Amino acid sequence: MKQEALTQAISMIDDELLAEAQEPSKWRRALPTALKICIGAAACAAAVGLSLLIPHGGSAGILVYGEDPSKAPVAVRTVTDAGAAAVRAFALECTDIPVEVVTSEKTVVSISGGELFIAGENEDIVPAECPLELDRNTSLVWSVPLWDGAAEHELTAQWGSRSRVLIISFDENAGEWTIQEK
């Protein structure tokens, strides 16, 4: 557009339209402070509520002898007629370790040493292929040879791109086999 045409178009605007545009809108009133605070609190509550409803990619809980090895090392024990006793020396036979995997999504369990069994409801123990795919809470038995104190065996539970690794090793200071999270 040429300069003259633009100047002529601006100057031809009705004065009533300019006066109306300069007045504040009738619909835009200031909200009371209390109402602003209530609206902000409601928005925050909605955000927190939605964050609780959105799945965050769960995890796999692993319990050994009913204890969580991520909090503290768990001593490997044998159950005899006299009760539970820690395995302090080297066992000539494999030691059976009860492991509970608590999960609600597809979890793959693998081991680096020993054998893996699924503990049934009637205390039946069924050999499991390794790696083992789980999609619900499952009781396992990890049968591990504990005759070499320098050996370390691992149990890995992996779901999605995350994993938890338990390691069984001989603790020289305590003089016993322990399981802890790596």
Please state the structural category. Answer: alpha+beta
Overall average residue pLDDT: 79
In DSSP terms, counting alpha (H) and pi (I) runs of 4 or more, how many helices? 3
How many strand elements? Answer: 13
Oligomer: single chain
Strand order of the largest sheet: 2-13-12-11-6-9
The best one-word shape is: rod-shaped
Q: Level of helix content?
A: 10-25%
Radius of gyration from the alpha-carbon trace, in angstroms: 34 Å
Query: What is the N-to-C order of secondary-structure elements (H for helix, E for strand)?
Result: HHHEEEEEEEEEEEEE
Can you walk through the features of this model?
With 182 residues, the chain is an alpha+beta fold. It is 21% helix and 37% strand. It has helices spanning 3-11, 15-22, 33-53, and strands at residues 61-64, 74-75, 77-80, 83-86, 95-102, 107-111, 115-119, 125-127, 132-134, 138-144, 153-159, 162-171, 176-181. The strands form three sheets. A six-stranded antiparallel β-sheet has the order 2-13-12-11-6-9, with no helix packed on it. A five-stranded antiparallel β-sheet has the order 1-5-10-7-8, with no helix packed on it. A two-stranded antiparallel ribbon has the order 3-4. The longest helix has 21 residues, at 33-53. It is rod-shaped and about 105 Å long. The termini are far apart. The relative contact order is 0.16.
